[in-house]
Amino acid sequence: MPASNKFTGSVRMRDVAERARVSRMTVSRALNDPESVKEGLRNRVLAAVEELGYVHNHLARSLSSRSSNVIGLVLPSLENSIFAQTVKGVSDVLRPLGYHLMVTECGNEPKDEERVISAFVAQRVGGLILHGTHHSAVAARMLKASGTPVVENGDIPAEPLDMVASYSNRDAAKAMTLHLARLGYKQIAFAALAANPRGASRSLGYDDALAELGRPADPRLKIEVSRGFTGGAEAIAHIATNVPEADALFCAGDVMAVGALFECNRRGWKVPDRLAIASFDDLELMRHVSPGITSLQLPRYEMGRRSAEMLLTRIEGRELPVPVLDLGFEIVQRAST
Amino acid sequence: MPASNKFTGSVRMRDVAERARVSRMTVSRALNDPESVKEGLRNRVLAAVEELGYVHNHLARSLSSRSSNVIGLVLPSLENSIFAQTVKGVSDVLRPLGYHLMVTECGNEPKDEERVISAFVAQRVGGLILHGTHHSAVAARMLKASGTPVVENGDIPAEPLDMVASYSNRDAAKAMTLHLARLGYKQIAFAALAANPRGASRSLGYDDALAELGRPADPRLKIEVSRGFTGGAEAIAHIATNVPEADALFCAGDVMAVGALFECNRRGWKVPDRLAIASFDDLELMRHVSPGITSLQLPRYEMGRRSAEMLLTRIEGRELPVPVLDLGFEIVQRAST
DNA sequence: CAGCATTTTGATACCGGTAACTTTAGGCTC
DNA sequence: GAGCCTAAAGTTACCGGTATCAAAATGCTG
């Protein structure tokens, strides 16, 4: 039991009711559904609220009404600005309707995600948006049992928990690989993020493309690197040593491609002449470095917006026609390829 | 009243109690303070919890116990990875103690912050960490009245709401400006973020330094730019047109310095020979570009960690000896100056 | 083994709201 | 103005837990 803090005697609805000389119920109505209270009383109530500095107790409200206006968003990390757009998409939908968004970060481990989900379910949030698509059995069961509406939006999972609004990491990786092939690159290397479920899907997409092209899967071309700028440098080092004949590098993690580009600059490798570089995520940075880096523009904002909309639809009791939404992606061709 | 979703008949403590043939109270104790229940009963309870898939209702718990294990963190934006370290610092302290962190973004407008704070207070969170230091009167009053422990950690405010764990934006900006002067730069330009309260403090710090150096404040050297990479480019353009004699540029916003560096590259300006560049925040990027950018290393992680610790101290009822903590900063000298 | 302190469990009231229902107050028709 | 209908306000019970105090079980001492 962690908390031992007690809320210091805060103002209760009863206090407001007494002050306005009405019943608690009238106060409740004046706050939640003002139209249903006659103007005179309503003003008296609102005045009392103002005078006493009353702040509605959502705890009690949610408990009693068995509904909540809080939506939880579970992200693997906040280190990355790639999620900012998604957060904005969600907020833009929720805010005008009076819902509140609470974000929590959970890493890539299903066990950690489980703890976060458990906390949200314990708080009886109105709905949950999960970026991850790999969940522990306990988490899945808990979500199902609690009946919490859920949207997954980091990938398109084979077996959705509930609703989905995302792009397909596998399709996107495949498309970019094919794009590089179409541009004439023969030896396309792939830098993969270790221990990242979305990284794994991307890796499969790369394989798909090679298979479709009828090219053999050269294990030297598939490079496992660490995250961040460092990963890009590692990939270049690997190519220099082990597959100098590679003519393109597709980086499957956000800033990784920039790290690779910087490393090429350090080594005096011309991009794209010596080596073409493509990135998975179209961060703002990609168009500011030179050469600009070809990348996949993902529907980050849309993912947020549609996730929130789907959630609200479900919360309001309407069933959804298509609970799995593939939002696609686009390839942005720049000077690096 | 937004939500109309009803929690579908979830398992209650009463159900667990019946199944384990004990009183609700025993279940409550077995979950919150296992030591206080004898092993036999405790196991029976835990087995029942497991079998029924019971998830504790924090709503009810918080309402009844008038305490919460949720801590709210209010950030101006999630677009920026600079807050990731702070989030991590907070989590690292809270997680092992069973507290949960919920993050919300609020922009730079006190009115928006007020809405977020109000939501957190309505949820009766155990404590609040605010990055902003400019609050609406309503928000301040609400926090005071509710008795919620609060830590501000984005700057050292003149009049703290409660506790503070931060560095001083003003001091940091002053120190960097003095550093540039010490390196011999004579015409130090300053690129400021418009409409950002922390930006304003930094601007004052720059002024302080000039005053201390006995240099006149040349208005052409103080440049207001937009945020992001673009802002840096704008600053360079301004210098080229209006103050070509400037020999150093101090950028007061995160990626701005990188944008400035890129723009210098485009124009063929040598850094630092033609123009030295310094950045406020020591993002990872700063050491990966070339030349590496001189910047201020801020105690982002510490700010999170100490904020959380202060909050817990207060929550546990102990008073703090020093409720305002200045965590300082360091200058990282790199090739750009 | 009685007598008392301590630990473990249970009964009851209440946390601060809202749902559902009842009562009262108005408004209209004839 | 009686009769009926609707709107507005109030009453009561309960949401799902925990605090608090009382009761029962256990242990210890002499």
Structure description:
The longest helix of chain A is centred in the middle third of the chain and has 17 residues, at 197-213. The first copy, chain A, has 3 domains: 13-56, 434 Repressor (Amino-terminal Domain) (Orthogonal Bundle); 69-167 and 300-327, Response regulator (Rossmann fold, 3-Layer(aba) Sandwich), CATH 3.40.50.2300; 169-297, Response regulator (Rossmann fold). In chain A, strand 1, helix 5 (84-94) and strand 2 (100-105) form a beta-alpha-beta unit. In chain A, the strands form 2 sheets. Chain A has a 6-stranded parallel beta sheet with strand order 2-1-3-4-5-11, sandwiched between helices. The first copy, chain A, has a 6-stranded mixed beta sheet with strand order 7-6-8-9-10-12, sandwiched between helices. Chain A has 12 helices and 12 strands. Helix content of chain A is 43%, strand content 16%. Chain A is α/β, with parallel strands linked by helices and 337 residues long. In chain A, helix 6 runs parallel beside helix 7, helix 8 packs across helix 9 (197-213) and helix 10 (229-242) packs across helix 11. Chains A and B meet through helix 4, helix 5, strand 2, helix 6 and helix 7 of A and helix 4, helix 5, strand 2, helix 6 and helix 7 of B. The first copy, chain A, binds a DNA duplex (30 and 30 nucleotides) through helix 2 and helix 4.
